[in-house]
Amino acid sequence: MAEDAKMVVAVDGQRWGTVGGGCTEADVTDQALRAARDGKPTFVQHTLNADLAGDLGLSCGGTVELFLEPIVPLAEMAHLYGVVADAIEQRVPATVYTAIEWGRGPAKIVRTPDSVTTVGASSNATVDSASATHVPGASFVDEENNRFVEPVARLPRLVIFGAGHVGAQIARLAANVGFYVVISDDRAEFANAEQVPWADETIAEDFRTLLGRLVLDEDDYVLATTRGHAFDAAIIERTAASRARYVGMLGSRRKREVIFKALADAGVPRAALDRVKVPIGEPIGADTPAEIAVSVVAELIRLRRLGPTG
Fold first, then answer.
1. Which pairing describes strands 42-48 and 15-17: parallel, antiparallel, or unpaired?
2. Exposure winner among 5, 184, 185, 251, fewest CB in 10 A?
3. How many CA atoms does the CB half-sphere of 136 hold within 13 Å?
4. What's the CATH superfamily of 157-306?
5. Would you list the domain boundaries of the chain?
6. What residues form DSSP beta bridges with 184?
7. How far is C-alpha 170 from the chain's CA centre?
């Protein structure tokens, strides 16, 4: 199970997200409803040894510890949840501090670079003492201050140049696995919310105009999937030496040779070109736009989760 796995359980049994599935998730659902009735957070631990895993037909064992927190129907809590939602949507890093003991009701604080939002924290020193704007990494228990600390990292951004069949399919899959997707095309009939509804941003604009104002950071991924060599060359020229974590171009090795030679002759550093991935995607024999999208997004997931040597 991933360290950042989460699940919301409603009183009628509906669930959003997952913490592993199977019998563990069924037990956690019951425990979550009990925590909701009690109105206070709690920790639970589940251990599945190899023998029990085999009896249940599960593929793995191990121990997992979960933090259960009631969703309290208060206006101030709804506002706090909204602050977190806005931070995620706007790609702003945040950190949520939750007091483990709720002696006087919910005690939480959310810190972003521009705001501090508290609920009941004034009466709870363990939450008031939260000082850092953002704590990177996975969630953890701050035993010294008796609080649960949950970093909310901004979503990695995938910028796709070209909203044709392949670009649109990549956008769809990437959005489903947690990328903030920006897709652009110089043709408005391709780059629009109706054609690519799963993208966070659709931009109908000349590629060079967008490149002129685009600022790329270390958590950005760039794909050139346009309909023409000249467009792809312009995109690679402007992004190869950027801070983006990944730059890739759709096409064959022959296309790579032709475009890269022209760019090198135009003065683009060879070291910058060498980091550009062409062809893009995992080598799974992909052929259709949907299959190519699977291979490309798989490569992005591998890089995001395991790093360049994963």
1. unpaired
2. 5
3. 1
4. NAD(P)-binding Rossmann-like Domain (3.40.50.720)
5. 7-68, 75-152, 157-306
6. 161, 203
7. 15
Query: What is the separation of C-alpha 27 from the centre of its chain, rounded to a whole number of angstroms?
Result: 27
Nearest to 107 by CA among 121, 128, 97, 126: 121
Using CA atoms, how far residue 248 sits from 88, 184, 220, 237, in Å, is 26, 15, 12, 12
- pTM for the structure as a whole: 0.85
